[in-house]
Specification:
mainly alpha; 13 helices; flat
């Protein structure tokens, strides 16, 4: 419609009469409409451009931006892949280094066991100034009224008892108290010497060259190694169970007679109103009563085991007092003097016999 109005205005301006023939005006009108349409078509891109629409140059920029984005994405993926490969390589090298160190440590331990002077885990596990407890020999002395000895456990040792200390020190402790402490609470033994010495492994281990148990003989072996240390107390518990069962089996006829007399007795049936309720009770109540009875029996057996163990520990202390030899003190000197006197008397007797033999010869 706009094109038609423009054409009509052009005809009026050109002087063509509106009443002229249509055939005469048709070519001019078509030509005018075509020219105006072409001008309008030429003006459309500029109008669209002014209104913010897209153009051919804008599409080219978008394509370039897409290409740049694709290249950046490919570059990022490539860098990520390279980073993953680098991390895998670092992980592999770290694992190989750890395996190498582990093999080296194992080889050092094996060589150290064979006498090669190499550092081991034990030798490097502690910091400077915090050395592990070392094995140490012991000194044994007799505590008397004339020569009293202090005790780390009870301040003063009892007279006429033996005391022991690490060799070269005066940190004495009663032998009986030490043995009883290692039986009741072994964790408190080495802190008595500030954890400087490995007392348990040095003095009470069969593998140690300083062990006190090498002086106790067969009796000490049965008491210490079999009854107290056998299976961490399992041997003593088993023997105690067998003893109790044997006593019950031996006394079974007497127990049966007592139980029968109780069951048929009048006082027992006079309490029917009391224990009859328990007999007629349900299974949960009977189970609870059985658990309480078993708990009581177990408690009594544990108490019996502790009493027997304490008795055996006392026997062990007495045995150590008798067996462990004295290494320092006046008593040792007196004993040596007595031995020397006996040897001197024997020598004098031998000389007297030799003189008598000479007289008989002449």
């Amino acid at each position: 419609m706009a094109a038609l109005a423009i054409a009509i205005s052009i005809e009026r301006s050109s002087g063509i009469s509106p009443h002229s023939s249509w055939r005469r005006r048709r070519p001019l009108l078509c030509k005018s409409i075509g020219n105006n349409v072409a001008s309008i078509t030429d003006e459309i891109p500029s109008l669209i451009k002014l209104r913010g629409g897209s153009t051919m140059s804008g599409d080219g920029d978008i394509d370039e931006e897409d290409d740049d984005y694709d290249e950046e994405e490919e570059r990022r993926k490539l860098q990520q892949k390279e980073q993953e490969e680098f991390e895998k390589l670092c992980k592999y090298r770290t694992e190989q280094q750890l395996l190498y160190q582990l093999r080296s440590t194992y080889l050092s331990e094996m060589l150290a066991l064979r006498g090669v002077p190499l550092p081991t885990i034990v030798s490097v596990a502690t910091a400077d100034g915090d050395k592990p407890p070392e094995k140490v020999d012991w000194d044994c002395a007799m505590c008397t009224e004339d020569d009293p000895k202090s005790c780390l456990y009870s301040f003063d040792a009892e007279p006429n008892t033996k005391v022991v200390a690490p060799v070269g020190t005066d940190q004495w402790i009663s032998l009986s108290a030490l043995n009883r402490l290692r039986r009741t609470d072994p964790t408190k033994v080495e802190p008595m010497w500030h954890s400087r010495y490995s007392i348990l492994r040095s003095w009470f281990s069969d593998e140690s060259e300083f062990s006190m148990l090498q002086h106790v003989g067969v009796k000490g072996f049965v008491i210490s190694s079999v009854l107290l240390d056998g299976g961490n107390g399992l041997v003593l518990r088993s023997l105690l169970i067998m003893t109790v069962m044997s006593a019950i089996i031996t006394l079974m006829p007497l127990l049966e007679f007592i139980v029968q007399r109780i069951i048929v007795s009048a006082p027992f049936w006079a309490q029917w109103q009391t224990w009859g309720r328990i007999v007629r009770a349900g299974f949960p109540l009977k189970l609870l009563i059985g658990q309480l009875a078993w708990k009581g029996v177990a408690t009594a057996f544990t108490k019996l085991e502790n009493d027997v163990r304490e008795y055996i520990v006392d026997m062990e202390c007495e045995m150590l007092e008798e067996s462990v030899p004295l290494t320092v003190g006046d008593v040792l000197l007196e004993g040596e003097e007595d031995a020397d006197d006996e040897n001197g008397e024997e020598d004098s007797y031998d000389e007297y016999d030799d003189e008598e033999d000479d007289d008989d010869y002449y």
